[in-house]
Amino acid sequence: MDPAPPSTSSAITLNINGEKHRLSIDHRTTLLDVLREHLDLTGTKKGCDQGQCGACTVLVDGRRVVSCLNLAVAAEGRDITTIEGVADSDQLHPVQQAFLDLDGYQCGYCTPGQICSAIAVIEEHAAGWPSAVTDDVGIEAGPAPLTSDEIRERMSGNLCRCGAYVSIVQAVSRAAAAYEEGRAAEAVKEASV
Amino acid sequence: MREFGYQRAHDVAGAVALLAADPDARFLGGGTNLVDLMKTGVERPARLVDIRELPLGRVEPTADGGLRIGATVTNSDLAAHPEVRRRYPALTQAVLAGASGQLRNMATVGGNLLQRTRCGYFSDVSKPCNKRTPGSGCPAVSGEHHNHAVLGASGHCVAVHPSDMGVALTAFDAVISYESPDGPGEVPLTDFYLPVGDTPHLETALPPGALITHVTLPPAPVAARSRYRKVRERASYAFAIGSVAAALDIEDGFVREARLAFGAVASRPWRARAAESVLIGASADGGTFAAAADAELEAARPLPENGYKVTLMRNLAVAVLTELAERDVR
Q: How many CA atoms lie within 13 A of B76 on its CB side?
């Protein structure tokens, strides 16, 4: 007996930036196209639409991913954060502020993806993840400092056709330092309680 | 893109049954290769079975001192795992050398092994390709092939397997466990990819509808002294044009144990057994390392535009073995 032809669209609920959105979509719709075409969240950009440029980077369950290769239907039930959701009401995210302060962009098209990626890079590094340029990946070596080379490697999935890489790296470096200071201050506070 | 049904599997048996019922169904892991191939029309499934909620997402030590890796573990989680970093560092390095942070967060271990070649002709449905359409021909043989195979290829297909992870797993004797409509099975990774011959469309030993459930690494103390090096045309975020996973155990200046595997040289990660035979028991010096590389590359059959790969792989193998020998100071 042949299986019944499956339904090719579904009604789903997506959790985006803390809000629930109910949609009826064709399964072929990517998360990127749902954001831009169905929900008017056009901060996330379509660069290559094949996972190779990083312009479409968003956070899913706190992890950076390319939204162009995520099917929207497969993203149901996960917490999605887009560039529209990284600020804390009118308080810019420290990474956003660093990009502004250090002029980490020219045309701005890759920038939402760069910022979402950088937010994750800082957290990945803080979690002790090594990278392809980390000399000793052994666990006894301890976390590698977030040098320029480390930032470049960890951000290598985000292309910038304007070539703003120098100031992008500086912005990530500054935001990472602020994050480390913040964590150190938290640790001092907790220790003194 | 062809329209398709989508459902999430909640147990392994159910997932396998769904695929057995529909030959046009495909398992969906991270989607980093499958969704890309669906966009270009190379893959046209009628049904996707999402396997990411199956209980296959853990890395666990085995009783005999090895490691059992669930098929849906992401590349990122695998690379960052303390036991992988401690006991099989070349595997961490290999995974980190691949793709981008975003893609590594999505991609699964099972999917990485099953990823398809990035040969430009395979990827382009307007071109002939014996792998995609058996019997249609291989334009790469006389066309664009600078990053194609120098080992184990045939006149029917000269594509390479692009995985970095697979090269390290091959060096460490990984075993693939799967569940199939006829029950569970396992196959060593070195037997997992079928020889190209005149059947390039038949890529793996997986029975139809089977689901990879685990990858198991046997205990291997030598693996703690390992390295992966990748050569590519960019500093980052590019496929290999040649790569090496190696491990050496040296005592009193002689090689006691050696593992060696090459990437981007063949339709599968290439275990360099001829080289290993030269290495084991020999003096751990440059002469031995060069002889070992030559022994393995003796079988190389380069194409007109990829002869550089033979020189590259010889130099790379010698360099990685030399680095390991210099580090291995007892």
A: 20
Low-confidence ranges of chain B (pLDDT < 70): 329-330
The answer to whether residue A122 scores a pLDDT higher than 90 is: yes
Residue type for position B12: V
* pLDDT of the residue at A191: 87
Q: Say how many domains are in chain A.
A: 2
pLDDT digits (tens, 9 = 90+) for B2-60: 999 999 999 999 999 999 999 999 999 999 999 999 999 999 999 999 999 999 999 99
A178 band by pLDDT with thresholds 50, 70 and 90: very high
Mean pLDDT value across residues A44-64: 98
Same domain, A24 and A105: no
Q: Looking at the partner chain, which of A5, A66, A129 has a beta carbon nearest the beta carbon of B103?
A: A66
Q: Per the domain annotation, does A2 fall within a domain?
A: no
Query: With the CA atoms of A175, A84, B34 and B75 taken in that order, what torsion angle do they form, in degrees rounded to the nearest 10?
Result: 30
Which residues 141-160 on chain A approach chain B with CB closer than 8 angstroms? 152-158
Q: Which residues of B touch A121 (CB under 8 A)?
A: 101
| Pair (A100, A181) in one structural domain | yes
Tokens of A73: 């239907």
Minimal Cβ distance to B102: which of A10, A65, A138: A65
Chain A neighbours among B 235-274 (CB < 8 Å)?
Answer: 235-237
* CA–CA distance, A175 with A86 (Å, rounded to integer): 14
Residues B139/B159, Cβ–Cβ less than 8 Å: no
- Which residue type occupies B101? G
> Do residue A108 and residue A145 come from a single domain?
yes
Evaluate if residue A174 carries a pLDDT over 80.
Answer: yes
Q: Are residues A107 and A182 in the same domain?
A: yes
What is the domain partition of chain B in residue ranges? Answer: 1-55, 225-329
CATH number for position A155:
1.10.150.120
Nearest chain A residue (CA) to B90: A137
A119 shares a domain with A38: no
Category of B28 on φ-ψ map: left (φ > 0), alpha (ψ -120 to 50) or beta: beta
> What tokens were used for B48?
């996707």
User: How far apart are the C-alpha atoms of B189 and B112, rounded to whole Å?
Assistant: 13
Domain that holds residue A20: 9-85
B-proximal residues of A, 86-115, CB under 8 Å: none
Last residue of a domain, one of A85, A105, A121: A85
Please tell me which residue of chain A has the smallest CA distance to B104.
A65
Instruction: Looking at the structure, tell me whether residues A107 and A80 fall in a common domain.
Output: no
Q: Which fold has domain B225-329?
A: Enolase-like; domain 1 (3.30.390)
CATH number listed for the domain at residues B1-55: 3.30.43.10
- Contact between B68 and B62 (Cβ < 8 Å): yes
